[in-house]
Design brief:
Strand content: 5-15%
Largest sheet: 10 strands, mixed
Structural class: alpha/beta
Shape: globular
Oligomer: single chain
Number of strands: 23
Bound molecules: ligand 26Q
Radius of gyration: 26 Å
Length: 750
C-alpha cells in the first residue's frame, strides 16, 4: 500500500454510527498496513535494547506523523466532520514508570528515524503504570487497563512463542510486535506470559516503583522471563543463519542492558551456550563479554538490585549455579591482579546482600555508561570507583537525549512552523540545523511570544477541563513535572511557593508578574513520604487558589494522572522548567531537555544534564542556583545542621505550616512525620537528607529573579529562544548515533 492508496481507503471509511474507539482501531489498522508494506530488509548486524519499561505514550498521532499521513488524515476526517483530536480519548500505553522507560521509547524512535537497526525487547504488561486519582488531596491508584481500547499497533506472533522455565513452572512467552516507523521500520517485541494463572501473573503488572524493591519474587520472575525469551530467540536465530558458530555471535548482535533489570540475560545466555550447545564455560563467558553492554540510570543506593541467593536457588537453580561459578571466576581473576580484600568485596557478584546485578554487569559488559557527563564522573569516582580502577576502558559517557519528533514537531506544531519560516525545514530531518536559529533570535522574539501565548492558552483550556482550575491567559508558567521523589525536591518548590504567597500577602514581594506553578507527579504507591508531599501540595493549592487577595497573582495546580500526553501539553506551554534535584542525585533528567527544546528556561541546580544544558544554551539564559556536588560532599563531611535555616522567619514560617495547623493531613500524622524528616531525621536518613532547607533561600531568589526578568517580554523570549536554538545536542538522534558508533557498531547500510 502507498500513501495514495491509504488516502483513498481512508476516504471510503464510513464514519456514521461509529464510536471513537472503533474508528481509532480502523484507521490505525489502515496505517499499520501502510507502514508494514514498506518495511525494509532485515539487517545483518543488529542491536537489541532490553528494557523492563517502554513508556511509549500515545501511538496514534506519532505513527501517522512518522508515516507522513498525519495531515491528510486530519483533513479527510475534518471533511467527514470529525476533529482528529477526538482520539485523545484513547489513553496512553504507559508501560513504564518515568525517565528510564521514556528514554527507551525515544531511543527506538531515533534509531528508526536514522535508519539504524535497533530493536526493543520488553514485557507486554496487561496493566501499565497505575492511573492516578486524587481524593481529598491524596493520591489513589487505579488499574491502567490500556488494552481496553484495543491494541491496533501490535501484531501477535503466535508461531514465534517460546517457553521459559522456572523450577516450579513453565511459562509460555508470546511475542507481540509493535513496529517502530521511520527511515526504516524496527520492531519493539513485547513478551506476554501465558499458561497457568500463576504464569499469567508474570506479565500482569508493571512495578510501580522507580526506586525501591517490592514484591521480590515476582519481580525476579519478570526479569528472567523477558531476558530468557529474548536471548533464547537471538541464539536460535543466529544458529539458523550462521550455524553453531557462536564465536561469531557478537559480530551480528549487540545487546544493551537498560539498567540492571535485564542483567540476568547474561547468565541465561551463558546457560544456553553451555548447557544446550556444549560450549565450555570460559568460551561462553568470553562471547558474552563481547555482546553485552550496560547503562546505569541511577545512583540511589536503594535502586541497586541485589537478588537474595535463596530465592534465586529456589526458582532458578541453574542460574544460581552459574552465578556462583561466575562469581568465583571473577574473584580468581581479580586475586591474580592483586586486588585487596576491600576491593574484592566491593566488586563481588555474590555479596552479603545477595547477587549484585550491577557488579555482574560491570564484570561482563563490554561497555558501561552513565547518562550525563556528571553522572558518568560520579560512577567512575564514586559508585563504581573500584570497578573503574580495574576496568577503566569499559567506561563511557552517553548523555541522554529526547526525540524532537514527539517533543517538538508533534507537541508544538506552532513553534515548528515558526522554525520552518525562520531557518527552513531542514531541521526536521537534520536536527543540528536548529543551530541556525542563533542568527535570528532578536528578529523573531515577538513571534515566539505569540507562539508561547497560544500554547499556554491551549494548556490552560485543558487544565480547566481536567482539573477545574482557571488560569488567566497572561500568567507566567513555572512547571515541575516528573516522578515524585524526595531527591527531586518537589517539597522545596512547595516551600518556595509558600514563601512567595506570604510575601505577596504581607507586601514584602512587590511587582510580581502573575504566575502559576504546575505540578505533575505520580508517587510509588508504597512510598509514604512522597504521597504526603502530594497531599501537602494539594493543600497549598487549595488555600492559594481560593485567596482573593492574591489569586490574581498566584495559582498552584497539581494536575491529576500526569503522563506522556499531559507532558506534551505542559512542556509546550511552560516558560520555566524546574529541575531542582539535590546535586549529584539526578542521573540526567530528560524532561529538562524537552522543556529546553520548547523554549522554557531552566531554573535548576548543577545536576545531571542541567549542567550540559546551561553549557550549551548559556548560563545567562538560564537560572542556576543551589549547592553543587562539591558543596554537598563538604556539607556531609563537616556536618549539616538544617535547624539553623529554620531560624530565618520566612523559611521557618513556610516549613512550620507542616505542624502549626495551617494545613490538614486528614489526621494521618504524615505532615508531622515529613517535618521530622527535615528536622530530626527519620528511618535510616539524617535530618534533611536532600538539603531542602539549605537550598531553599537561593531557590526563592532564583524564582523571583525570573519573575522580574519576565517583565521584559522580548528579552525573556530571547533567552527562551537561545534554549531552542541550542537544543540539538539534546536530541536522541545525537545520543543514538553515539551508541551506534561507539558501542553497537551498527550503521544504516541495509
Ligand atoms: C529497582 C529495584 C526493584 C524495583 C524497581 C527498581 C527500579 C525501577 C525503575 C529502579 C530504577 C528504575 C528507574 C530509574 C530511572 O527512571 N532513572 C532515570 O533514568 C533517566 C534516563 O536515563 C534519567 O534521566 C533520570 O535522571 C533517572 O532518574
Amino acid at each position: 500500500m502507498d500513501k495514495k492508496q491509504f488516502t483513498e481507503r481512508l476516504k471510503k471509511i464510513d464514519v456514521k454510527n461509529k464510536g471513537v474507539i472503533s474508528l481509532y482501531n480502523e484507521i490505525s489498522a489502515l496505517a499499520m498496513e501502510l507502514g508494514l508494506s514498506s518495511a525494509g530488509k532485515a539487517s545483518e548486524r543488529n542491536a537489541y535494547y532490553l528494557s523492563m519499561e517502554f513508556l511509549i505514550g500515545r501511538s496514534f498521532y506519532n505513527n501517522l506523523m512518522e508515516l507522513g499521513v498525519l495531515e491528510q488524515t486530519s483533513e479527510i476526517l475534518a471533511e467527514k466532520g470529525i476533529d482528529i483530536n477526538v482520539f485523545e480519548e484513547i489513553e496512553d500505553a504507559a508501560l513504564g514508570n518515568g525517565g528510564l522507560g521514556r528514554l527507551a521509547a525515544c531511543f527506538l524512535d531515533s534509531a528508526a528515524g536514522l535508519g539504524l537497526p535497533l530493536h526493543g525487547y520488553g514485557i507486554r504488561y496487561k496493566y501499565g503504570l497505575f492511573k492516578q486519582a486524587i481524593k481529598n488531596g491524596f493520591q489513589i491508584e487505579l488499574p491502567d487497563d490500556w488494552q481496553r481500547f484495543g491494541d491496533p499497533w501490535s501484531v501477535r506472533r503466535e508461531n514465534e512463542k517460546r517457553t521459559v522455565i522456572f523450577a516450579d513452572m513453565s511459562v509460555t512467552a508470546v511475542p507481540y510486535d509493535m513496529p517502530v516507523f521511520g527511515k526504516r521500520t524496527n520492531v519493539l517485541r513485547l513478551w506476554q506470559a501465558e499458561g497457568s494463572a500463576e504464569a499469567q501473573k508474570i506479565s500482569e503488572y508493571l512495578y510501580p516503583a522507580d526506586d525501591t524493591e517490592e514484591g521480590k519474587i515476582l519481580r525476579l520472575r519478570q526479569e528472567y522471563f523477558f531476558s530468557a525469551a529474548a536471548v533464547g530467540e537471538l541464539i536460535e536465530k543466529h544458529i539458523k543463519k550462521h550455524g553453531r558458530n557462536f564465536e561469531s555471535f557478537p559480530q551480528y548482535n549487540a545487546i544493551q542492558l537498560n539498567d540492571t533489570h535485564p542483567v540476568l540475560s547474561i547468565i541465561e545466555f551463558i546457560r544456553l551456550l553451555t548447557a544446550d550447545y556444549k560450549v565450555n564455560f570460559s568460551d561462553a563467558l568470553e562471547i558474552a563479554k563481547k555482546t553485552f553492554s550496560y547503562t546505569n540510570h541511577t545512583v540511589l543506593p536503594e535502586a541497586l538490585e541485589c537478588w537474595n541467593a535463596d530465592i534465586v536457588k529456589k526458582i532458578l537453580p541453574d542460574i544460581y549455579a552459574l552465578l556462583i561459578k561466575i562469581h568465583l571466576k571473577q574473584k580468581d581473576e581479580l586475586t591474580r591482579l592483586n586486588c585487596t580484600r576491600e576491593e574484592l568485596a566491593d566488586m563481588a557478584i555474590y555479596t552479603s546482600n545477595g547477587f549484585s546485578m550491577a557488579n555482574l554487569a560491570l564484570y561482563v559488559a563490554k561497555t558501561v555508561n552513565g547518562v550525563a557527563k556528571l553522572h558518568t564522573e560520579i560512577l567512575k569516582q564514586n559508585l563504581f570507583k573500584t570497578a573503574y580502577k580495574y576496568y577503566p576502558g569499559k567506561f563511557q559517557n552517553k548523555t541522554n537525549g529526547i526525540t524532537q519528533r514527539r517533543w517538538l514537531m508533534l507537541c508544538n506544531g506552532e513553534l515548528s512552523v515558526l522554525l520552518d519560516e525562520t531557518i527552513g525545514t531542514g531541521w526536521r530531518s537534520d536536527v543540528s540545523e536548529l543551530g541556525k536559529l542563533n542568527g535570528y533570535i532578536g528578529q523573531i522574539a515577538e513571534e515566539f511570544v505569540a507562539v508561547k501565548a497560544e500554547k499556554k492558552k491551549q494548556l490552560f483550556k485543558y487544565i480547566k477541563q481536567r482539573e477545574g482550575v482557571d488560569i488567566p491567559d497572561n500568567f507566567l508558567v513555572y512547571s515541575q513535572v516528573k516522578r515524585l521523589h524526595e531527591y527531586k525536591r518537589q517539597l522545596m518548590t512547595a516551600f518556595a511557593i509558600l514563601e512567595i504567597y506570604y510575601g505577596l500577602k504581607d507586601g514584602t514581594i512587590k511587582n510580581f508578574a502573575p504566575s502559576v506553578f504546575i505540578f505533575g507527579a505520580k508517587s510509588a504507591p508504597a512510598y509514604k513520604r512522597a504521597k504526603t508531599i502530594i497531599k501537602f501540595i494539594n493543600e497549598i493549592a487549595a488555600i492559594v487558589n481560593e485567596d482573593e487577595q492574591t489569586n490574581g497573582l498566584l495559582k498552584v495546580v497539581f494536575v491529576c494522572n500526569y503522563n506522556v500526553s499531559y507532558a506534551e501539553k505542559i512542556i509546550a506551554g511552560s516558560d520555566v522548567s524546574l529541575q531542582v534535584s539535590t546535586a549529584g542525585l539526578e542521573a540526567s533528567g530528560t524532561g529538562n531537555m524537552k522543556f529546553m527544546m520548547n523554549g522554557a528556561v531552566t531554573c535548576g541546580t548543577m545536576d545531571g544534564a542541567n549542567i550540559e544544558i546551561v553549557e550549551y544554551a548559556g548560563l545567562e539564559n538560564n537560572y542556576v542556583f543551589g549547592a553543587t556536588v562539591e558543596d554537598i560532599s563538604k556539607l556531609k563531611k563537616e556536618g549539616y545542621e538544617p535547624l539553623k535555616y529554620l531560624a530565618d522567619p520566612k523559611h521557618g514560617k513556610a516549613v512550620k505550616t507542616l505542624i502549626d495547623g495551617t494545613f490538614e493531613d486528614g489526621g494521618t500524622g504524615s505532615f508531622k512525620e515529613l517535618y521530622d524528616s527535615l528536622t530530626v531525621g527519620a528511618s535510616w536518613h539524617k535530618a534533611d537528607n536532600y538539603f531542602v532547607l539549605y537550598d531553599l533561600e537561593s531557590y526563592v531568589n532564583a524564582l523571583l529573579k525570573i519573575n522580574g526578568d519576565y517583565k521584559d517580554k522580548n528579552s525573556f523570549a530571547e533567552k527562551q529562544l537561545k534554549n531552542v536554538a541550542n537544543s540539538a545536542y539534546f536530541s536522541s538522534d545525537r545520543t543514538i548515533k553515539e551508541y551506534a558508533d561507539e558501542i553497537w557498531e551498527i550503521s544504516d547500510a541495509f
